[in-house]
Design goal:
With 70 residues, the protein is mainly α. It has helices at 5-16, 23-27, 43-68. The radius of gyration is 13 Å and the shape is flat.
Length: 70
């Protein structure tokens, strides 16, 4: 699971294309938006990214729960 299209492309180049997906698309297939990369921005950007990641990870875990614990 990756944050951005660029991250996804890098993972696909490593040969994991079929198994790779953006976190946003996995967590909510109707949205599929990349998570803004905070690198180069201030602490507020990191806080915002943390909040987005927390929400998406919770949604991804909810989606995985029935698969992992049938």
């Amino acid at each position: 699971l990756t944050m951005t299209w660029g991250h996804l492309a890098a993972v696909q180049q490593m040969g994991l294309g079929e198994r790779a997906e953006m976190l946003g698309a996995f967590a909510d297939p109707t949205m599929g938006q990349p998570v803004p990369d905070p690198i180069g921005f201030g602490v507020d950007a990191y806080r915002e990214t943390f909040d987005v990641l927390r929400e998406l990870i919770d949604a991804a875990l909810d989606r995985l729960e029935p698969i992992l614990s049938p």
